[in-house]
């Protein structure tokens, strides 16, 4: 099955974004790989994504480094070609291709992220943010019934192992600023522009 799609533009990621991505990937590697038996590297307009999983998707990471790939191998996960990936990874690749081409707004692949009960609650709420909309950290905290937990929400948001699929990029600052994003602010802006939540930058 081919997941190749032509896109109108791609994103060039600067060195600051790479540093943030590496830090985020390192922080999440152990939890995501504990449950992964297969891993596949997929090209996208915002750089390669590393998908892991078996019966369900366990992680979607931005721009995996050589250290990340070494962690995949040492975990016992089997790195496979896209054509040889198990059904859940092939379906995730297909849905991501549709998302980037603008024809998909929701994902329905089975997910199995590893996290604390609080993190899982936050990630569930992230999936309820509609395509083309954003929420603040305070909004998520209020939805949890704990308005004072914005900081904890931010930490859980940053620990999300399923980038794009669980749309942590849709969470912004209370003042409308994009704030931090493990994949880098440029990627966050790209995704929000793709979804129509931000006007495309003129330059």
UniProtKB/TrEMBL annotation:
Its main location: cytoplasm. PROSITE patterns: MGMT. It holds the Pfam family DNA_binding_1. CDD domains: ATase. It is an enzyme of class 2 (transferase). Its EC number is 2.1.1.63. It is found in: Cytoplasm. This enzyme catalyzes only one turnover and therefore is not strictly catalytic. According to one definition, an enzyme is a biocatalyst that acts repeatedly and over many reaction cycles. This is Methylated-DNA--protein-cysteine methyltransferase. The lineage of its organism: Bacteria, Bacillati, Actinomycetota, Actinomycetes, Micrococcales.
